[in-house]
């Protein structure tokens, strides 16, 4: 059809309408390069440019993430005094947001005299896509104050922000807003299932899932992903089988969730089973993420050599994530030789990621090779790579409280340390021993114990115990993997206090109750 229209355009007299129609047609049909070429031709010929010309062409830039072309079009729009037009401004904002230029997107948004619903939605999505979840929530509150009409797309973006920040109260409030607005879309429903699971409320997540009569694959994926994060492996497997029975066909996300749960639960044979199902499924194309998960399945179970072989025979170039997974496995199973090879690959792929240097240093430290530890740490310092600081946070009385190791700035810090000492005192009565091997500094054992004592998740737990009612779970979130000593501490503390602790680290949710953890000490 596009070819026919182009032929007619060449034969018939051209007008602004025909040019604009042609550019819009190319953009809407995914022919973004052709849309840009046609605009360039139109501009060369000195044709009049309108807000419709520019907005359609800029939309083509958004589809192909063509930031340089968008900047040029922004300049043209400014010269023609069309940059404040709602269509043009919204299109520019959308490109900047998608290309991680969120400050520029905000600047365009602030300059728009008439902020359309699409503009608000684009900025919401931009904040969430760029990981600026707090800013997305602030924007949402501003939109509510200004009476901006809510859409399913807007609410879905904000729910994603709540899920990433694990804001339980805000997530519940948004659920109420959705019910009040009468929205029933599958995408929103899946977002709600996801937010409850990410906030540690897996029971509410499943109750919502079970309540829905019509469920598409996105909703099933959200629930399977929730079970996976909470170490409910068998429940996830049952759902997978139920999908087959109901002829709801799994997609790439479904298989990814199943492989991920097998990885974090140490289910090697089950992991092989789902990977083989994926390979034989003609409706789904295995991608690099699936292979990355399978490498993790093998590596976490100590099969580092088999993971290494898979890396070399798969139809993709190994990614930083794969090498990082292999390096982590080498640390757990004390394979220094393979760790060094994996680290060298990581340093090439991610030269600015200090975490890779730290992980290699930890491999050497675990085997007592302090000379190589010093060498690895010196290389980290010389490279200028940044190490991410560990943080834990907890929600109490509508506020997020963030802790770092050895925290001293919190207003309740004295009470927090007193509570922590009280817990350790009770632990000594039952002969709990600190796992000093989890501290990888070359110092005396007493110093190791002191360093481990004030890890951020322990401080967050102590704060939760003095701040939250005894009848509710204490939910803590951490940006790094929980260490072995903190994991052991949480189990014993849960037994002593008779409370449920839920800790979400980078791998999964850990439910500590009566002296045990839902992960079965495998994470």
Automatic annotation (TrEMBL):
The domain of life for this entry's organism is Eukaryota
What's any GO biological process attached to this entry?
RNA modification
| Pfam families reported for this sequence | DYW_deaminase, E_motif, PPR, PPR_1, PPR_2
Q: Quick one: signal sequence residues?
A: 1-18
Q: What is the lineage of its organism?
A: Eukaryota, Viridiplantae, Streptophyta, Embryophyta, Tracheophyta
PROSITE patterns recorded: PPR
Give the organism the record lists.
Answer: Aegilops tauschii subsp. strangulata (Goatgrass)
Q: Give every DYW domain span.
A: 435-523
This protein's name: DYW domain-containing protein
Q: Keywords assigned by UniProt?
A: Repeat, Signal, Transit peptide
């Amino acid at each position: 059809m596009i070819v026919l229209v182009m032929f007619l355009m060449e034969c018939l007299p051209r007008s602004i309408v025909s040019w604009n129609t042609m550019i819009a047609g190319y953009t809407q049909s995914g022919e973004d390069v052709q849309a840009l070429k046609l605009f360039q031709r139109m501009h060369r010929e000195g044709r009049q440019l309108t807000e419709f010309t520019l907005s359609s062409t800029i939309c083509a830039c958004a589809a192909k993430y063509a930031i340089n072309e968008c900047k040029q079009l922004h300049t043209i729009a400014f010269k023609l005094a069309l940059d404040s037009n709602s269509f043009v401004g919204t299109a520019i904002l959308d490109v900047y947001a998608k290309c991680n230029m969120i400050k520029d997107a905000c600047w365009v948004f602030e300059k728009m005299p008439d902020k359309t619903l699409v503009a608000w939605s684009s900025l919401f999505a931009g904040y969430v896509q760029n990981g600026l979840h707090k800013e997305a929530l602030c924007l949402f509150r501003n939109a509510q104050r200004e009476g901006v009409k809510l859409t399913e797309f807007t609410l879905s973006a904000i729910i994603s922000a709540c899920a990433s920040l694990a804001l339980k109260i805000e997530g519940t409030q948004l659920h109420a807003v959705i019910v009040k607005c009468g929205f029933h879309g599958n995408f929103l429903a899946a977002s709600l299932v996801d937010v409850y699971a990410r906030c540690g409320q897996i029971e509410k997540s499943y109750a919502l899932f079970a309540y829905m009569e019509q469920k598409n694959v996105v909703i099933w994926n959200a629930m399977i992903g929730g079970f996976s994060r909470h170490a409910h492996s068998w429940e996830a497997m049952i759902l997978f089988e139920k999908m087959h029975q109901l002829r709801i066909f799994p997609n790439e996300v479904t298989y990814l969730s199943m492989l991920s749960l097998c990885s974090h639960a140490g289910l090697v044979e089950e992991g092989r089973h789902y990977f083989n199902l994926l390979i034989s499924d003609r409706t789904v194309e295995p991608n690099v993420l699936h292979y990355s998960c399978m490498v993790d399945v093998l590596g976490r179970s100590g099969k580092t050599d088999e993971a290494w072989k898979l890396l070399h025979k798969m139809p993709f170039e190994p990614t930083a994530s794969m090498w990082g997974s292999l390096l982590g496995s080498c640390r757990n199973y004390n394979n220094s030789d393979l760790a060094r090879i994996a680290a060298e690959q990581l340093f090439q792929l991610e030269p600015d990621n200090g975490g890779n240097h730290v992980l290699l240093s930890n491999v050497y430290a675990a085997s007592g090779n302090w000379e190589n530890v010093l060498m690895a740490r010196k290389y980290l310092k010389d490279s200028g790579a940044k190490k991410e600081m560990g943080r834990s946070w907890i929600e109490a009385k509508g506020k997020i409280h963030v802790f770092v190791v050895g925290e001293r700035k919190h207003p309740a810090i004295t009470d927090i340390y007193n509570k922590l000492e009280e817990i350790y005192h009770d632990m000594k009565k039952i002969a709990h021993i600190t796992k000093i091997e989890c501290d990888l500094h070359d110092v005396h054992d007493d110093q190791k114990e002191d360093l481990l004592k004030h890890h951020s998740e322990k401080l967050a737990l102590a704060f939760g115990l003095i701040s939250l009612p005894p009848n509710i779970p204490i939910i803590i979130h951490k940006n790094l993997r929980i260490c072995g000593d903190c994991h052991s501490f949480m189990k014993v503390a849960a037994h002593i206090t008779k409370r449920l602790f839920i800790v979400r680290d980078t791998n999964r949710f850990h439910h500590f109750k009566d002296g045990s953890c839902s992960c079965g000490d495998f994470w």
